[in-house]
Fold these 4 entries.
Entry 1:
Amino acid sequence: MWTIRTSRVARASIPRKSAPQTGCRRNFLNGADARLTKPLLVSFNQSTVSVYWVAMGVALIAFVLTLFFRTPPLRQKSALQESADAERQPEPIALG
């Protein structure tokens, strides 16, 4: 009971804040005249489409560049096998 009561008191003491105003209100588009909304919708569409065209261009350039990359040859042995082979080889004897 004590924890429930304290949580209610704590919750009541915290001031409630309204949602932050982002400045992006498009509610006026719902009831506005088509002559007013068309330029906004067209400009929004054009800006969005231009972003996608630029992204597609970048992706195509990246794809063409990958065609010119050489792939490194695959290993013939695993890393564990290579380390085991290196341990089996005798160490050179230093003369001197």
Entry 2:
Amino acid sequence: MDQLLAIKVFSRVVELGGFTKAAELLGMPKTTVSKLISDLELHLSAKLLKRTTRNVTVTAEGAIYFERTARWLRELDDIDGGFDVDRTKPRGRVQVGYQCVGCQQRPHSQVIGFLCALSRH
């Protein structure tokens, strides 16, 4: 288990209040999020989240763990941010959607050209 990843995922689940929202934000399958949380709970020998079919709530142990790890994750982000030399370049994922009428499920050459140009920068 990647403990750092599991802690980050746990943090997102708590902040967003659910596995589905966290999975969408993190760009990973919901099953992966669930597995990471289960592995983390097993590693800690503690139940961090109470799950039902309709919601997720944080246990007492989970609240303590979240509070401590959230502080640590913020510090880690600050440390990592100190090494980011070029803050003028955009970072992260870009999601592009378009509607094409009559193109038979194939993107126009302009869209392909745009995405290629974007990937070079």
Entry 3:
Amino acid sequence: MSEFILEGQRFNTDDLSEVDLSTTVAYRYTEKEVGRLKRRIGMFSTARNAYVVRLSALLPEPVDEAQLSEAKVIRVNNRAYPIASLSQDALNHFSSVKECDKHIQRLDVDLAIAETALMGYGQAVKSAVLG
């Protein structure tokens, strides 16, 4: 006898059809994928925060934006810094922050898709086991 838990309820898979059993497997896989995506978002968020801390320590004094051309400025915490005044290390950390932001955005989209699939599989499995 094989069981699985859906929304806090235990269900027996022995009586499921091949198609319903396949849907149950897809549900379990997707559930694990949601957890994996959440852990990856956490990992990239932690890395991003570490880069921001290090970057903050490397930044010079901010300047008045009215004195700067937009093309020669980066923004950190709503403050403008002339690119020419940043060290290579600061530029590398800034680039790493932006790269982490891109990964987090992509993972957020993947997570939304996986959670939507999980709801769909959950409804299908629930319908199969409850009749």
Entry 4:
Amino acid sequence: MTWYKSQLAKLDKRLLDIFVLAYDTLHLALGYDGNLDADVAQAGLKRLKRLSIGSNSERLPFK
């Protein structure tokens, strides 16, 4: 998580904000808090999709 955040911070603060929101929703709310609401999962996935929109220079490789 730290590596991705530092790389996104260098590229684009907007992408960093989207990544953090998606992480909070998908990993923390669903994983740790046990939120099973499908709407919450859809919202997290929608945020994550926003990261893949744009040029290849905006995309980070999976580490």
